[in-house]
Amino acid sequence: MTASNEYRFQVNLSGMIQILSNHLYSSPKVFLRELMQNATDAITARTEAEPGYQGEVRVELTGTGEQLTMMVEDNGIGLTEADIHEFLAMIGQSSKRGQQALLDGETSFIGRFGIGLLSCFMVSHEIVMLTQSAKGGPSMEWRGKPDGTYTIRQLDTQLSPGTKVYLRCTPDAAHYFEADYVKEALFYYGALLPYAVTLHHDGVQHVVNSETPIWLMDPALARSRRAEVLAFGERLLGEKFQDFIPLTTASGRTGGIAFVLPHAVNLNAKRSHRVYLKRMLISEKAENILPEWAFFVKCLIWTDELQPTASREHFYENEKLEEVRSELGDALRKGLVDMAESQTERLQKLIRLHALSMKALAVQDQAFFAMIHRWLPFESTRGHRELGELIDEGETLYFTSSVDEYRQIHHVASAQSMLVINGGYIYDSELMATLPMTVHNVRTERLEPDQVSMSFTDVPPAERNQYYDALRLADSALQRFRCRAEVKGFKPSDLPVLFTLSQESSTLRALEKASEESTELFSSILGSLSSGISSAGYSTLYLNVNNPIIQRVLTAPDDQMTPIAIEMLYVNALMMGHYAMNRQELEVLNQGIVRFIDWGLRANTDRKGDA
Amino acid sequence: MKTEMDFEELMDEAYGLPNGPAKLGMLEEAARVADVNGMEEEAYEARSEIVETATFCGYPMKALIAFSWQLGKFDQQPEEYDEETLMWSYKWILGKLSSFPEVSRDKIMELLEDFGQRFKSFGYSERSYWYYRFRISMDLGELEEAGSSYAKFRTMDRDFMSDCEACEQDEMMRYFILTGDDEKVLEMAKPILKGRMSCAEIPHLTLSEILMPLYRLGRTAEADKHQQKGYRLIKGQNDFVRSFAEQMDYLARTNPAKGIDVLEESLVFAMNNEDPFAKMLFYARTAPLLRRWADESPEYRLRLPASFPYEGDPGDLHKLADYFAGYAQAAADKYDQRNGNRHVSSLLG
Question: A402 and B21 in contact by Cβ < 8 A?
């Protein structure tokens, strides 16, 4: 047996850099954020050593075409020669803490520095860094190339402490180096930084971030500075807002402003909140930092307690995040509750625009529902109304549980002036079901289509007796459709019949329809299922005693004519109710039409014969 | 007022909604509009969505009905429709079929064979067949048969039609819950609890399933943590009625006040659930919880959903408990009769 030899497999560094830089980050533009982050971390590290130290970040654009160069300079802690070696080790191979730092998204200065610099290879074929550590030692120069080669040397001159990074723009990245773009991007990433960020270009200096707003430390102060906060929101988030709610957590380590969106939003719209970690932008599409129901706001959040993912574009879904999310949700909810108490008009305006979001919260939170229920809009047989108005009618609030049921009911219910709410839209039936538990003296009741007859007038027994024979004929004609006939008086009188079915009979209809279309095996399984559905599965055909045709059908029973008339009325009712018909019903329709044509023609011939 | 939306509008509205009864209602309305207007392709499309939505929000019967229709259409014109989507749905249907006690054991087995034969004909791995055979045997209480299918499917190759690893792991764990091997349950749960395996429903399901095994092993501190995390993941979602039942089972023994919260927050989902098995388990776990709570807080009036079909006084918790227990027992008897054993009623004990 030969001794086993140990080898180290080779990693193609330029390939690795390619993979990391292009797949870890969402877009090349993040190189600027990474440079800003490195600068910020360096300043933070220096401020820790020298309290009161005033940091500064300077960005300079020089040259044109192939000479176009960007320089990012900070006056932070700088790197010693040993630091440089350490961060290089990180890029090259897994050092003692490198790999883990990447996975944990570690935020320590050195741990992050190299990864950040790596992203610059997406826009530059050479990175030059000049640095002087605040701890002393010689000034250093580092030159790196994306193939993984680099040079490092001591400089003859002594620089002031800090770091400068020079990037020479690649042709396809030129737009990331345009002054207007860079200025906007610097503001975008660094708007909340507590020290000056300046851009120098063509001999002009632009201050990117003006003074840090005072309400950043204490979001409650934002209330008294409405105009300023709205303007800030517009500049940063690019939308003209009219309202906002300040947010803070108990620890005070996370705060923010929830700007109320000035337009209605779809339930599945991406929630994109702007989040700053330690004052640096970390994400513009953080979806998970607020509860699901909070889709009516776009938030500006700053935090120093959450852990970013390796790409620094999102947060880890951990317990801390859950805690922050629920606290921010509470703060937002509290803002709404305060409005409900003291500024109802403001809240009403908000609800008009964001009813869906408010309903989503109300479903989860009964106290909140109780507070805002009067202003929530619902569709009803009295039109689109606010719930408060509907409650004030003083009637039982009937609601359907689906759009389909509402469709079946609404025409007849309207004619009877019955108050029915369409519960088919999201959250509506849940809200109606819980309303009586939430608000005193309100009754709600789930209405099924077959219950709409509650409001019909009964036919007196003596009169009903006259129709006995006709009804018996009708029942036997309808039996094969699992349907029975009933005589009632209802509006509108030009409606001869009305077909209604309970939930069970609706399920049965669906089972039958599917059975007809399906394979033998599935049909027999559907058959077993329908055997489990109770006899409540009968549908009802209401004959309107107020209708002249029905009067004639009822008063002149005929063994031959009545069953056919009833069958035709039945399929007519199905069509009017827009029900999908099964084969048997379609056959009745076809035969009936032919038969009526036949009778019509025969009657015509008979008359001619008489003449 | 306009009450009739057209097919596209309805589908758009449905796509904008999260899974739930409202979305399902929109889809059913869309299918109806398509049927009435003879739009067969659209009717098929709407039903594909119905099958998926209904499967994941507590309406297995609606899923089955829509799927039956689809399969019939597919068999008539297989070139018109995509078989992979349909066969993937078939797994959901098969997985829920045993929940309906009206469907005989023979029919279930016949459907399993139909499923297996179809998978074979499309060239998919036989693993799915054996995996579902394993699951169905567990549902029917045939643990020996389940054990041999378990041994078999694990040796076979996964393919793109296989359930995800996290789901399979959870089902395998369930097997050891049924055989009563709590230590083994926790061993199987480990990759899920460590976060190495997850999907849309895992660890949601797992976190509730392991509560009783942990309780029996005396590891309540761990269980409490999983209970909290698990409940956060499933709260307010009607797809997790079984999990709510498992939560209540545990909380009735450790923290009945919290259990009552779970009950009040999720009873409406159980009540409206079309899966009679999940509903049975929920009602079965409700009864002892109410009795326990009646001892601690005799004055308590349980908040019942508006349309809950109970005529009695919601303040008499013992009577209410009898109602729930009675419902569960009646349901369990139906299963026992179908299965020809006492497996399901033994789960209620």
Answer: yes
The residue of chain A nearest to residue B10, with distances taken between CA atoms, is: A403
Put simply, the answer to whether B36 touches A578 (Cβ < 8 Å) is yes
Q: Give yes or no for a contact between B246 and B211, defined as CB atoms under 8 angstroms apart.
A: yes
Neighbouring-strand partners of residue A302: A255, A276
- Which phi and psi angles does A199 have, rounded to 5°? -120, 130
Cα separation values, A601 from A586, A598, A605, A609, B183, Å? 23, 5, 6, 12, 84
CA distance B326 to A435: 29
Query: Which two tokens mark A421?
Result: 């709410």
Helix (H) or strand (E) segment spanning residue B35: helix B21-36
Any idea how long chain B is? 349
- Is the sign of the CA dihedral B157, B160, B161, B166 positive or negative? positive
Contact A426 B23 (CB under 8 A): yes
Q: Strands (DSSP E) along A204-252, which ranges?
A: 204-207, 244-248
Please state the pTM of the whole predicted model. 0.78
Any B CB within 8 A of A359 CB: no
As to burial, measured by CB atoms within 10 angstroms (0-12 exposed, 13-18 middle, 19+ buried), residue A143 is middle
Q: Three-state SS for B308? A: coil
Q: Alpha-carbon distance B260 to B232, whole Å?
A: 16
Q: How far is CA B238 from the centre of its chain?
A: 10
B165 to each of B93, B130, B196, B254, B295, how far by Cα in Å? 19, 15, 10, 32, 44
Predicted-complex ipTM score = 0.91
Inter-chain CB proximity B22 and A511 less than 8 Å: no
pLDDT in tens, B48-81: 999 999 999 899 999 999 999 999 999 999 999 9
As beta bridge partners, residue A199 has A59, A206
* Residue range B7-44, pLDDT digits in tens: 999 999 899 888 888 899 999 999 999 998 989 999 99
Structure tokens at A589: 């329709």
**CB distance A73 to A58 below 8 Å:** yes
Burial of residue A479 (number of CB atoms within 10 Å: 0-12, 13-18, 19+): exposed
